[in-house]
User: Fold these one by one.
Assistant:
Number 1:
Amino acid sequence: MGENTAEGLRGIRAGNTSICTVGAEGHGLHYRGYAIEDLAENSCFEEVAYLLMKGELPTQNQLDGWCEQLQTHRRLPGLVEDILRRLPADAHPMDVLRTGVSAMGIAEPEPGLEGGFETAVRLLGALPSMLGTWYWGSRGKDVPSGDGIEGFAAYVMLMVKDDTPSDLECRLMDASLILYAEHEFNASTFTSRVCASTLADFYACIVGAIGTLSGALHGGANEKAMALIQQFKDPEDAARGVREMLAQRKLIMGFGHGVYRVRDPRNAIIKGWAKKVSEDRNDLRLFEISEAVEQVMWDEKRLFANLDFYSATAYHMAGIDTPLFTPIFVLSRTSGWAAHVIEQRADNKLIRPLANYIGPEQRTYLSIEDR
Ligand SMILES: CC(C)(COP(=O)(O)OP(=O)(O)OC[C@H]1O[C@@H](n2cnc3c(N)ncnc32)[C@H](O)[C@@H]1OP(=O)(O)O)[C@@H](O)C(=O)NCCC(=O)NCCS
């Protein structure tokens, strides 16, 4: 590494934000000053999205109006619906959402770059329908109407789950959407800000962010965590298997973090939900396997579970297919991305760092016959 460079930009403060703090005292998470524990316990996703995007918690009237807007925006433009219906059933749903958002940018272009709030609300409302249109439509089934379903989380569950979701499953979804909503300058959010800083439109920022989130080191970790725990038959098998993987220096998905050093505060909350949903199903096998993995990772590496680890168990036990895990993360994180795009635009400076050059010294150009 050369002078003034940091691998992966670790430890570099790349800008100002008033949206979120991550890792204060090694483990804290606050959205606009509110602790994640308070929000997950007392709030709902719509309220948190409003807080992130507007800066303050809504009054009851404001919340009612906001929820109504989100419900109205479930409707998709014809062009977007047509495109989504043509996508194959074996497409990855992250690619489906990336395509749907891109198509929205053509069907309903952003009117101007002032703020972006209206476009953000429009997209946030439409995203669950995009996922549902593909999920149900690609299997030749009718998309459930959602009439009479008011809450965002309940509507998401309707879009991603084959049988009728229980009240407990909807509450799990609501909590997980709150936990996933925002996380400061993580890779996908930073992507959205870089994109916004060039004065690209809102949809471009979100398309870029979805692409970044899809990777296994970021949002894709919840799907990989599921694949990991599903391969073990019981907690003993899991403990043995994970020790072997660590001996082979393999990465265990759903553990560790680029910023938190002590623990991920979201873990205790989602773990509680994973347990509740498993108990409700009277099936604690996967939960106990997950706990065994968590214990070995702590004993052997002092690495803690991040949000993605128990999200996998919780979503699986709520009857959600694994490929839909990261797309659900998108439905939530769009609120955080939107808040950052709006913040970037309000005080914009093109994000353009320098590179530390490590290539060859100056060379003389050789004509092609002489090489
Ligand atoms: C998130 C992540 C990319 C952070 O990486 P990072 O900032 O480089 O992590 P650290 O610097 O704390 O890593 C310290 C050591 O622990 C190891 N480590 C970190 N996470 C690990 C994991 N999940 N499994 C096994 N070893 C891990 C690193 O390889 C490193 O070992 P080394 O010093 O021998 O090279 C990394 O922990 C990871 O890949 N986790 C799995 C993917 C995941 O869950 N992503 C979702 C994040 S919310």
Number 2:
Amino acid sequence: MTSPVSSAVSSPSHVAPSHVVVIGAGIVGTATAYELALRGVSVTLVERREGAGLETSRANGGQLSACEVAPWAGPEVPGLILKWFGRADAPFRLRPKPDPEQWLWLMRFLRRCRASARAERVLPNLELALLTRARLDAYRENFAADGRTLDMDHAQNGILRVFRERHGLEEAREGIGRMTQAGVEQRELSPAECVELEPALASSFQKDEIAGGIYCPSDGMGDAHLFSRELAAAAERLGVRFRASEEVEAIEVHDGKTTGVRLADELVAADAVVVAAGPMTARLLRPLGLRLPIYPVKGYSVTLPLEDAEAAAPNVSITDESRKVVVSRLGNRLRAAGQAEIGGYDLTLEMPRARSVFQALTGLMPQMGALEPRAEYWCGLRPMSPDGSPIIGELASRNRTIRGLYVNSGHGTLGWTMGAGSAASLADLICGSAPQLDLTPFSHKRFSL
Ligand SMILES: Cc1cc2nc3c(=O)[nH]c(=O)nc-3n(C[C@H](O)[C@H](O)[C@H](O)COP(=O)(O)OP(=O)(O)OC[C@H]3O[C@@H](n4cnc5c(N)ncnc54)[C@H](O)[C@@H]3O)c2cc1C
């Protein structure tokens, strides 16, 4: 038996839709379909791939990181892009394209590279991350009530941010009080305390490569691909029609109202449509005259089956702040992820860039070098908004609202951390209940479309 949603009061004037199409079965779309089904809504989930979680949600860094919700755009970023310009192993890379979409997005991103702009996004993102934690707990309870386990290699062993240089640690120290005040405990650790907490860092400690760390015990890690698959199956058990291997070609709108979506040879009627198409979101909406600033930022990961090396692997999730790589233990696998390339929609896996993630991992934990023959490399496109927060809500252009057209996308570097919370909030909005958190900071209206 699935437990009901803790819900808020419905507005008497709001008519809940009779049928909703959700486009995209990544973390965000599957969670949205599941949350709507929990509220008794009839849902069709359409996914162009053969199953759930096969694009950006396939092999991300695994971190559920309420402690690290600050956007990427910040005062140091323009300098870093210039510093690394042209280097194949650069953690940040700009590949200019003759594409106005890219330049417009970049201009918006650069405008957000101010300390004050970064600071103003931290609390809204944190609220979403904390709601996500609560929703993941609720999903686990729902599975347990059905006699099942939500199998996503989840572990809540905390996240340790490791700094090689003192100045990085000193800057980050300033955020500890703010986060603790907001309800996310963090504490600073000496180099010796870092290695005591996570013995897999012993080699870096012995080489004097750790200046210190900041530990957030309540954070966790898990496999977003397994999660998407499990949740899509749970949504189907609640009556959601999951149409895999079907691509939405267009969103149908008549008289200012969404009427459904067009597939290759069929119209699927709906009185509400949720676009959760990850990096493809902006392209799907453009024919409707909506120019959402969501642009792909490519990243890489490497997954290492641990087999007999489990004892040498970390149990705490690590962010190496100097090498710009995150490391998560997913059951009997180790995953490292990093790299940010602003270079369009190309998904070619470039081995020098993929290997640089592996090298960053072995720089931090040389004992993992022996696993190289088992390495599985992957790359994916983060759906990024310029300000590092997702866009959640009903859509309107400068001239008109399109009733029944909703978006849940642009989670960028934090889709796993914020996805379930954004799904629950949007489901509340669609059903006419007061969302569990204020969605105003996530409205598309903060950008002019
Ligand atoms: C290297 C890397 C590391 C990361 N690490 C972390 C991390 O540690 N923690 C964290 O919180 N986040 C992390 N992220 C970010 C996170 O993975 C993303 O924000 C998240 O996966 C986005 O999910 P999504 O559902 O929006 O997009 P997707 O997973 O891409 O899902 C969108 C789906 O829509 C489908 N689709 C698109 N167009 C259509 C169409 N026309 N018709 C039908 N279906 C369509 C696609 O096939 C896809 O399955 C990382 C990302 C990368 C790349």
Number 3:
Amino acid sequence: MANKKLRIGWFTFSCCEDSTIIFTELLNDHWQEWKKLLDIRHARVLQDKNVLDELDVAFIEGALNSQKQVDMAKEIRSNAKKVVAIGACACTGLPSVQRNTFPEKEAKEIKPLVKKFNFLPKGLKLAEAIKVDVNVPGCPMDEKVFLNALDSLLKEFKII
Ligand code: SF4
């Protein structure tokens, strides 16, 4: 029987996707080791065929700006045993939800755009919409913290 692998998904909401780039760079260095340990079920940046089913861990980058994104985050949460917030935007909202900090005049000026794109009145960090188990801070994410978090999860799920 094949060895058990950690079933993971990598998801991106409102952000610049720099942590995704870090993740793909890390794959360059670790793919030989990770291909034996990780079953990548969902990662649009890496593959065409993606499924959202019974994940052990969902890694989520970016902040949430619309109800559609909140609903998607909830769907990911309901399909994942653990959720890891990746990068400052997911962990704290900023810098992606900078509009939340605009003074009244600027906030009024962007109102038509907020309406046009069907955005929520305020952008949200991930934990404002769903339960987050692990935070990997940094802008972009701190590589060492990510690798430590991955290592802990591999141990927790008894993959290593
Ligand atoms: S935390 Fe920084 S690097 Fe990551 S998505 Fe946000 S702005 Fe980009």
Number 4:
Amino acid sequence: MAAVALLPLRIFAGFTFLFAGVDKLALNRSFLSLGSATSILAQLHGYARVSPLAPLITAIAIPNAWLMGVTIALAEMAVGVGVLTGLAFRLSAAGGAVLSFLFFLTASWDVHPYYFGQDLPYMMSFVTLAAAGDGGLYVLGPWLERRLGLAAAPPARRGRQSPAPTPMSPERRLLLHAAVVGAAAVAIAIVVRPLRDLLHSDDGSTGGLLGPLGSSGPAASTTGGGSGAAASAAPASSAGGSSALAIATAAQVAQAGAYGFQVPVQIGNASPGDPGIVVSLGSGKFAAFDAICTHAGCTVGYDPSAGYLICPCHGATYDPRNNAQPVAGPTNVPLTELPIAVSNGEITLRA
Ligand code: FES
């Protein structure tokens, strides 16, 4: 009864984790492209700002970001395969719970209140599945063992002369099932990974089969103007130990309400190479911010109709007229404001 009652949960959680792994490897163009603002590297930098695991993220995960991304994708697929097929079911479900807990400590750590985050419910789902077991319902284990000659065929099919194989120990069975689950995850990865090149064009244009879908994320934010052509800041002047770096002209910002640039030097919490955004506040006033979302590191875009900076990942919304304080979404930390000066129609960053 418990296994039947939990079947919808098992299918949903298993399919979701399997799909999440496939998505990271094949459907999402930017996750493993470390130069992208929505890559695993960018996300890890975001987590390192807020997570209690920050020292581990900085020391281990960030230097091995690509490997970390692939490992996460494979682990998610293995959990999905195990939960759906019933192979190493409890181990797979426990793995899903551990992964979800790690996601909670990183991606969802800064979500307030906590019940807005999605990782704790997943963790509890997997805990429930691991505790309940599969109940022998829709499991591939017995079939697999018979195919490998490790278990006796059903009585009707067993020949009289065929002695039944020695029963497997639970440990050996778990090892076998876990190995098959791991091999299946790797096999799926090998099959789907080439799809990435097929689905997306190399140059990031819409030539791939998925077209704009693949460019989801802040670089092509649906929020519009703020993600305009990024401009590298150029030195403009230097005096008294501080330098001014040109980031845009007032006309460029006025055109779309905001203008993207790249932060050239360390300024407060903003690091060199971070995406920056300068926003027109009206009446000839402007404000500039580090465009990295303080929730989990995606890049915010500017919505000119709402007048807010909006993160495309989980919807954090910042008010540029109020020092980019969050007005909605899963963070209560404002964007880092960058000091600027406006002179003769030119906006410069004060570093
Ligand atoms: S990264 Fe989650 S809201 Fe921005």
